[in-house]
Design brief:
By secondary structure, the chain is an alpha/beta fold. It contains five helices and seven strands, in the order H-E-H-E-E-E-E-H-E-H-H-E. A seven-stranded mixed sheet has the order 4-3-2-1-5-6-7, with helices on one face. This is DUF2124 family protein.
């Protein structure tokens, strides 16, 4: 995998994601399934989902790798995209999106468990979205064959009070 381009800000994260999905040959109703940590990854998943809201795909959120707890991501008028209380009928991803929070120390899931979940969906494209080189630091770049990897930076964080 080679560095294709370096962008900045929130659009730098969202535009390549949307472009990849738009150009991936997805058909109406195909699933994009996001695997991530409850709470911390969810807002980023909803942001990514908002960027691709005009594509005719079904978006699904899986907490950690628990596909039995999968939820549909829906548009909410005046708000954006949100993980709904509605369970997904069946997880059948054409695109798997692995969120970087899964790779962070202390998260109750191993990269081997994530690899096992990914392996149950052969042929699905794999997208990684992380911050601050977490996938590199935790050895995920070598473990997963990412079709697209977005590594964003939130540094520095400046706070005034």
């Amino acid at each position: 995998m080679e560095l294709k381009e370096q962008l900045s800000g929130v659009p730098g994260m969202l535009r390549p994601f949307k472009g990849f999905l738009r150009d991936s040959g997805l058909n109406e109703g195909d699933q994009v399934v996001y695997y991530g940590c409850p709470g911390t990854c969810t807002p980023f998943i909803e942001l990514l989902g908002f960027a691709v809201r005009d594509l005719p795909i079904e978006q699904v959120y899986v907490p950690y790798v628990n596909e039995a707890a999968a939820k549909v991501i829906r548009p909410v008028e005046g708000v954006g995209m949100q993980v709904s209380a509605e369970s997904a009928v069946k997880v059948d991803p054409k695109v798997i999106v692995l969120m970087g929070g899964l790779s962070m120390p202390g998260v109750p899931v191993t990269k081997e468990a994530v690899r096992g979940a990914v392996a149950t969906h052969p042929g699905a494209m794999i997208v990684g979205v992380c911050f601050m080189q977490m996938f590199e630091k935790m050895g995920w770049v070598e473990m997963f064959d990412f079709d697209l990897l977005i590594d964003a930076s939130i540094n520095p964080v400046r706070v005034w009070q």
